[in-house]
Amino acid sequence: MDGMVLTSGWAEIGRLTDIPRQGARVVASSIGDIAVFRALDDTVFAIEDRCPHKGGPLSQGIVHGHAVTCPLHNWVIDLQSGEAAAPDVGCVKRIPVKVEDGRVLLSLPGAAA
Amino acid sequence: MNMMSPRRQRLVVIGNGMAGMRTVEELLKRAPQRYEITVFGAEPHPNYDRIALSSVLAGEKTLEQIVINSRDWYAANGIRLITGDPVVAVDRPGRTVTSASGITAGYDRLLIATGSKPLAPPIPGLGLPGTCAFRDIHDVELMLEAARTHRRAVVIGGGLLGLEAAWGLKRRGMSVALVHLMPTLMERQLDTHAGTLLQRDLDKRGIAFFTNGQTEEITGTDRATGVRLADGREIEADLVVVAIGIRPNIDLARAMNLEVNRGIVVDDGLRTTEDPNIFAVGECIEHRGQIFGLVAPIWEQAKVCAAQLAGEEEAAYVTPALSTRLKITGIDVFSAGSLNAADEADEEITFADAARGVYRKLVLREQKIVGAVMYGDVADGGWYFQMLREGADVSAMRDTIILGRAVATAALGSAAPDPHAAVAALPDSAEICGCNGVCKGAIGKAIAEKGLTTLDAVRAHTKASASCGSCTPQVESLLALALGDGFRKAAGEKPMCRCTTHGHDVVRKAILEERIKSIPEAMARLGWTNPEGCASCRPALNYYLLCAWPGEYVDDAQSRFVNERMHANIQKDGTYSVVPRMWGGLTSAKELRAIADVAEKYQVREVKVTGGQRIDLFGIRREDLPAVWRDLNAAGMVSGHAYAKGLRTVKTCVGSTWCRFGTQDSTTMGVKLEKMTWGSWHPHKVKLAVSGCPRNCAEATIKDFGVVAVDSGWELSVGGNGGIHVRATDRLCKVETEAEVLEYCGAFLQLYREEARYLERTAPWVKRVGIDYVKKRIVGDAEGRKALHAKFLYSQQFAQVDPWAERAAGGAPAEPFKTLVPAE
Ligand code: SRM
Ligand SMILES: Cc1cc2nc3c(=O)[nH]c(=O)nc-3n(C[C@H](O)[C@H](O)[C@H](O)COP(=O)(O)OP(=O)(O)OC[C@H]3O[C@@H](n4cnc5c(N)ncnc54)[C@H](O)[C@@H]3O)c2cc1C
Ligand code: SF4
Ligand code: FES
Predict the structure, then answer these.
(1) Mind listing the pLDDT tens digit for each residue in B445-477?
(2) Looking at CA atoms only, how far is residue B569 from chain A in angstroms?
(3) CB B51 within 8 A of CB B295
(4) Which of A53, A62, A88, A89 maximizes ligand 4 atoms within 8 Å of its Cβ, making it the mutation to test the pocket?
């Protein structure tokens, strides 16, 4: 599925300041919940809010650097690559995201231009 | 002994103290077979670390821990030790010494190391019971006894010794006043500014100061009752400690007709001027007009004297540059060289950050550091001191030098500061341990050659960090540099996680001592290798800071596990469960109705009675949490903290109100305990229970703090656990009143909060430290118990805020609960 998300444009989901640093907010979408993270250095990442292990809500985990620890069984997911850190194996879908003028934009399937 | 071997020479040492025995140790290293050694000591003890008496007084070390050379050591080295028996006469022509008890020993070489005596000014009343000096074990025993049986102490003298005495007595629970002749403290080591800061900080810690105070009289007839100052001020006291200075102990030397001035006059070979067979070292000597009061120069003397005794005639003593530190936990003072500019050619550079309580001054002469005074943050003291001793030209970093090594060297283009870099950059000749004169090269060599891996091993082999301990961080850095990740700080304690080499205890100690107030600061100061930490260390640090600085530290929600951030328990499907508090397991129709309403309104998927005597609502969506709480709040219910590393439940049984066996009202007791303890954060979850009789229906003996009522009072026990490893509680004690139950409980929980490691429940913690330790702190030490209880109550002021009400009412941001919806 990764990379297959066909999009026609960017949708605004809120302001950067709506997301706490080292935290996340959840965005409801047609492909399910998306977790949008803001790292301490203000880099923003968006991934599917489902842990590759047993579906834990990654948005609720502890964020450290560019990684999040899943709240259910402590898998560590790299936000940049979506990969679980060794020894665990798994990958979570990434969603294109960008910040413009303090607004956070997601590229969602089917979002209007 | 083999009769054919030549007779070994006889060495007699007078004074079984730090200087004398260090000389013997150095001698054994150089020429183990040369002498047959006899040591006379006036004190009844083997040689101990006098410096550490301050730590013993403050309760940080025991007397056993400060012994340097045990009696076994003397035996193993073939040394004859005579203790509790001072030498009273020396026959120089006959080369014999005689002790008070009449023991006579002949010598070929004599070493005098009689130390010094406390200055005893001619104050009327000095010598009464309840007065003492601060010099030896006997004095410390007197002070500890007074602290046990009396309340008020006055310390005369605001120098190093007086301050350490005052702080130790304060730590032992006495109310302490300090009288000092001068306007500022430690005026010989600190400038006025630093002395004032020191006084301010100690004042905050509860020591009352009487500066410009000339003591006229110690009042009292059978025992000291106070002191009267020349200006008429009077201070009541049950204990008066005089610590105004020392003078070399030269009585015996004078009687022997050796040349004495202020001290026993010695040459560069530490030989007395009158008799080449007699040497002297330590605080009793005078060398080129100088006398001594710190161990660093004395260790130098010991080396030179030992070399001379071993036949190395060219060894010569030169007094090294000296630096001073104060051993009061959490108060950092450093000074070396000149305290102030001597004339207009000298320059002073100062830096002061009043908010952080940091002050620094450097005195420069011809672009070289000739003095340094530091207060509050002394990490760079060693660096300045190194440059001072080397006479390094500092003109290149003149502009930034006062900001410390990291900034000054970065400004010169060096790499970013790394916690070990400062030590790594030092040359091998740099002295790390000032007390014992151990340089970096010697420590590195010992680590490499002897395969040392722990701080204690380095102490044992090199003596570095074994005296006052202030160089411990540098020694640890050297270990870390040599061993990399293989180095574990406190023996037996594992690092907190892979972000650091430090164990929990080391981190907690540093937070308090270095007054660290935030997670980023802790990570920076303690050299975290992973700049933002991880999901394991961040919650631990957050808790340690919360516990250390109640009311001051601002909780970091992003460092909390989801349950504590959301104030509900996350379930396997990402929904939450909600457990309202039911005080002591009691509920009412009104509460039950509100719960039923919530269950229907929010389509709760399951309602269950928990094992903790309350009701759990399962399957609640994140977005609904604030509304659920609002409805429960409206019926008077608050969070049950079923998710917290904190107080969970207080289980009770019906007790004497209804039960035919009940001896006391266990339910009311439970409710009172829960009202006192709810909301408190802990290293792990904490559960209490109160049973009305020994049938123990509330299962109190597998709880963290269990109370079982009996006819004559309440049996208290601690450290129980259900769960994976079931553990029954250890009995603490029996008390009679409800008020005592509350006090013991609060004190026990506070002790656990302060000393256990994060995620260590009371059961493994009590097992680790031992129930005797817990008893000693909670049962044996009434003052300490009251203080712990008071601290618990103090932090509860800030902790007892219902997190549900706060969020339902918009007091804390509600955003985390809401889902964002993309704009069209
Ligand atoms: C709800 C409840 C079971 C029930 O339906 O009765 C329960 C549920 C959970 N228990 Fe428990 N424990 C519950 C009473 C107990 C008891 C009984 C008691 O308190 O008297 C024990 C044994 C007593 C003890 O703690 O010593 C107990 C020992 C544990 C343990 C093992 C603790 C240990 O030290 O070994 C865990 C695991 C842990 O904490 O790491 C645990 C962990 C959990 C967790 C938090 C598991 C998790 O991480 O999801 C469960 C959360 C449920 C939720 O979302 O609400 N639960 N748990 C009980 C809630 C009590 C309450 O009102 O707050
Ligand atoms: C509380 C306290 C804290 C200190 N803190 C520090 C510090 O932080 N840093 C630092 O560098 N220094 C510190 N010092 C100073 C340090 O302890 C001394 O400099 C050091 O102990 C001096 O060694 P010494 O062998 O000369 O004297 P001592 O250690 O006093 O040894 C002399 C011994 O000789 C014995 N003696 C005397 N006369 C006779 C006799 N006729 N026959 C037999 N025995 C005799 C005495 O009883 C004594 O045991 C502190 C001192 C005290 C008291
Ligand atoms: S423990 Fe005692 S008081 Fe409590 S219910 Fe059982 S029998 Fe009654
Ligand atoms: S569901 Fe994320 S670690 Fe198990």
Answers:
(1) 998 888 887 787 888 788 888 777 778 878 888
(2) 11
(3) yes
(4) A53
By residue range, what is the domain housing residue A100? 5-107
How many CA within 13 A on the CB side of residue B306? 21
Q: Residue A66's pLDDT band (boundaries 50, 70, 90)?
A: very high
Check pLDDT > 70 for residue A111: no
Residue A57: closest CA among chain B residues belongs to which residue?
Answer: B574
Q: Is B597 exposed, middle or buried (0-12, 13-18, 19+ CB in 10 A)?
A: middle
Residue A98 lies in a domain: yes
B157: left (phi over 0), alpha (psi -120 to 50) or beta: left
3-class secondary structure, B144: helix
The span from the CA of B282 to the CA of B117, in Å, is: 12
Indicate whether A99 belongs to any domain.
Answer: yes
pLDDT of residue A73: 87
Contacts of B618 (CB under 8 A, 6+ apart): B571, B575, B577, B604, B605, B606, B607, B608
Nearest Cβ partner for B822 among A29, A63, A69: A29
CATH number for A24: 2.102.10.10
What is the count of structural domains for chain A?
1
Model pLDDT, residue B412? 63
Per-residue pLDDT tens digits for B292-315:
999 999 999 999 999 999 999 899
Q: Do B574 and A111 touch (CB under 8 A)?
A: no
- Tracing tokens 């516990």 back to the chain, one arrives at B547
Q: Do B532 and A22 touch (CB under 8 A)?
A: yes
Quote the pLDDT of residue B821: 76
The nearest CA of chain B is from the CA of A91 a distance in Å of 19
Q: Quote the percentage of chain A above a pLDDT of 90.
A: 61
A63 in B contact zone (CB under 8 Å) = yes
Alpha carbon distance B321, A71 (integer Å): 57
* Ligand 2 pocket, residues with Cβ under 6 angstroms: B 14-20, 40-43, 50-51, 53-54, 86-87, 113-115, 134-135, 161, 249, 252, 282-283, 293-296, 298, 327, 435, 468
How many CA atoms lie within 13 Å of B353's alpha carbon, on the beta-carbon side?
Answer: 8
Q: Within a domain: residue A92? A: yes
Q: Which residues in chain B land under pLDDT 70?
A: 1-6, 410-419, 484-493, 811-814, 823-824
Strand segments (E) across B129-262: 131-132, 152-156, 175-179, 207-210, 215-219, 226-229, 234-236, 239-242, 246-248
Residue B392 vs residues B387, B440, B467: alpha-carbon distances, Å = 5, 18, 28
Residue B334: closest CA among B314, B359, B356: B359
**Given this model, what pLDDT does residue B270 score?**
97
Q: How far apart are CA B145 and CA B787, in angstroms?
A: 20
**Residue A97 counted as domain residue:** yes
Tokens describing residue B257: 């007709």
Please, where are the H alpha helices in B334-471?
381-390, 405-411, 421-424, 440-450, 455-462
Q: Please tell me which residue of chain B has the smallest CA distance to A111.
A: B824
